[in-house]
Design a protein that fits this description.
single chain; about 25% helix; about 325 residues; 2 domains
Length: about 325
Amino acid sequence: MTALSSTSREWVLKAQSPIWTGDADRNGGRTVTTGLLGSLRWWFEVLVRGLGGSACDPAESDGRCPDKNDKHCVVCELLGCTGRARKFRFDVLDEAGKVKRDQIKKDGTFRFRFTPLHPMRDEEWTLLDLTLRLIADYGAIGGKTVYKPTNEPNRQNASHHRDYGLIQIHQPPRVTSKAKDELKSYVDLSRWCRVNHGDFAWASLEHFWCVKGRYLARDGNNQSSFNRLLGRSMKKNRGQQLFQDTPADRWLAGLQQESKKVFSFKEPEEARRTFGFVKPGLLTLDQMRERLNGVWQDLKNEEFLTGPTILDRLLSNTGGRAR
């Protein structure tokens, strides 16, 4: 039988870049826990979908919990939904254990503390730990993560070329790990509602990819490996115009007020990475790798990590942590 726990747990983290959360006025000079929790929830949903479970999209009126039978998904079981509070209190603390109020800056040490308000299952702690390690090793966290990396010497320090949201797990708590088949069984329990993922089905670890140690950037007025990958014009004065203009290009680049689906981080060098998603029926992982080969001609197949491989690494004995 799965154990239940009411003991709080803390992940001690180090910021490899500043963390931007933002307040109601979009000011990033403070640590706003709801911003971090929202980002954490998004990656938790990606993980659950990658394990074959249903995860609603709280932003979609037709796709969020509870359903017509008053059932909720496995994500809302832990993180809450309309009429249901989340199972834990979430605190962001500084090195002294006090509530962190100012911005988390590069090289700063901080803590995520989760204090159960209701007993939590081992599967929930495992999923939470996997989510944090997925973010730390392959993703990023916060309201803003990256704008546009550049190699232009006179622009590298501009605010819109800075990286945000990279973290490293300095000290994890003790968590009873569950095996992959146990987690898949848990997220597939009949008591969870079944969600039609629809337009957000791509936000799954099954459709995720990551290349570590490489980044995409602008190299001059007329050269940008980032724009080349997305199918955008590489000239600065052409803005967001797509020169290929295929459905896959439009989806990757993102419409106005919609996020692009590729993210690249240049600094710091030891955390350098590029990651993104593909969309079923529109763009496959193999096609994404071919696009990347067009930018990085020396890219090796083993460098292109897919979500299923990443999940196996996270679940391995080494925990999938960066060495």
